[in-house]
Amino acid sequence: MVNHQTYNKYDNLVYERKLTCSSMKNQLLIYIVIYLFVSGASQVINAETKILSSSENTQIAYEIHGDSERALVFVHGWLCNRSFWKDQIKHFANDYTVVALDLRGHGQSSSEIENLSINSFAQDVIAVTSSLGLSDVTLVGHSLGGLVVLETARLNVIDLQGVVVVDELEGEDLFYSYFYKIGAWLMLKFGYDGVIDSMVEELYRSPGTHDLAKEISDAMKEAPPLMGINSLFGEGHYFDYINNHISEALGDVSVPIAIFNAGDAPPKHNFDTLNQELLVTKGMPNTSHFLMMERSTEFNELLEIILEEFKLIL
Description:
Elements: H1 9-18, H2 21-41, E1 49-53, E2 59-65, E3 71-75, H3 86-92, E4 97-101, H4 118-131, E5 137-142, H5 144-155, E6 160-166, H6 178-203, H7 210-221, H8 225-230, H9 238-244, H10 246-252, E7 257-262, E8 279-284, H11 291-294, H12 296-313
Parallel strand pairs: 3-4, 3-5, 5-6, 6-7, 7-8
Antiparallel strand pairs: 1-2, 2-4
Helix pairs in contact: 4-5, 5-10, 6-7
């Protein structure tokens, strides 16, 4: 890249004569590549990534695979991105239209530090599914993404066949105290990267999971810290949604819901607000929070079973 500074006429002449035909061709090639990249960046980041506008004119990145009347839409968790579902995308794309998106503030979507409520995230899911004209949709959300798909179902805008909440809910009685939230805010505010590393290392201590732990923590630390903090605190945001809106959301949803957790399946009576006829519970023993990455083959098989059980309920 040429340094843009002032040259006199003599300097210009000398500089131009030093350029060989080969170097001029190389520079021309570089300029063409840059032009092609920049001109296409507003619509398509790569062959699989597309962009659309959600609420507040937020730009949402997503990818779509397969071509079926049945659709699976995967929603990642806090500080994650759609690549966390890569093994599920490969597995299900032959039989389903598979969509994975980056929620606002995450991955390749717009960098947001405001409008980060669970409802705002749900608007991103609605924007993508609606723009694609999907029907017969099952939403699969991990961790915070589980709350997002639950809220999406509560809004009753999409033609849904079911909702799968992955490792987020053990029941309806979870409550985060004021002091817990203050402690979480302080730790994240003054030790963001360290908190993420410690959290993931606590989940994956064995040498055999070292690479997975590094992959997860590195990806999570790419998310903007202020976005990560703001998405947890505030009215309608993660902690408030858990404390004040879970039971209401579960009671409002009229499609089958699967609670799919690492470890044992939670007892159905932990979800007494929910219509029990709509409830499916599953567990994956001896796994941790990122079970869809940790043991993807088993996860995919259990998800297939859930989808079949949804058909029986409907």
